[in-house]
Design brief:
The chain starts with a helix and ends in a 7-residue tail after the last helix. By secondary structure, the chain is an alpha+beta fold. The protein has a single domain (2-170, 247-336), classed as Nucleotidyltransferase, domain 5 (2-Layer Sandwich). Mean pLDDT is 76; it is low at 5-39, 85-90 and 335-358. It is built from 12 helices and 14 strands.
Amino acid sequence: MSHDRRSIAIEKRKSKRKRRIFLFIFLPIILLTLSATAYGTFLYNKAQSVMEDSYNPIDRTTKRASAAQPDIDSISVLFIGVDDSSKRSFSTSSRSDALMLATFNKDTKSVKLLSIPRDSYVYIPKLGYQDKITHAHANGGPATTIETVEELLDIPVDFYVKVNFNAFIDIVEALDGIKVDVPYAFSEQDSNDTPNAISLEPGYQLLNGEEALALARTRKQDSDIQRGVRQQEILKAIVNRAVSVGSISKYATVIDAVGKNMETDLTFDQMKAFLNYATEGTSINIESLNLAGQDMYLPNSNGNRVYYYELDEINLAEIQTELKNHLDLGNTEYGQNPAEKVDNTVQSEYQSQEESDY
């Protein structure tokens, strides 16, 4: 009987995970369109005002000899998606619902975009042991998340951008929708958690904000990894739509949608440097990367099995090298080897948080 109860508990937690909002999957459009707004004084001034309100530097030590600058260096930006909506009552202790690390190469004007699964079993320096990477934000916000990602990928994180889920729908709507390939037919809840409110058929099509959200969050017929790939394709569709000539008239609405739902340590002048990565009316060169791994379950203090995503060490090393090369860092080493200081005991205090994961 105890085995049956444990199995039921595991299935319930799996069901909760299927309902997670894993939707912060876009490079904030403002990074790639800000300078283009200089074509209009009104838009330029509006962007400057909104972005200054979003500016929120954090106290941390840079991993470089000197701080990197987007206009002269190859740099990295960590995008942190946090569901801190009033519906879910999250506050400063909210978990990151999605993490994406983007590297920008100054010479090739290319972008590499790495998705980091929220359940990745990693070393969190502030806690001093391994846990889900989503718990880094719950225990120190962006600063702890940045430190953890630097430890994991062995590269410096130069800047961060943090957004809440309201930005996703607002931006897609501001752009009058995006065109994406829907891989299969499905029904999904909407942003108000109304069951089966959104139904889509397979095929390349124009999606509105709610439909794009449904495609980003569903995983009824595939896995978290496949969903991550899907989310990257949605991100690319948003970015390329935003930099198209036809979207110039939408910039004011896009700026409002991003600005009121974002905080970052990028200054307005630094953001303008990203114009170099987007030529008006053309696509942006974005390469998607994903971390290989496998499902893993570990017992907590209550005897229940807790789900983690165990990263493949060989693939992780390959990703580290690829990102270092893209940042022009060569074989430069950052941080210490996590294996030298990992306490493999996952503290029950944080394991118990899984009971409320969604």
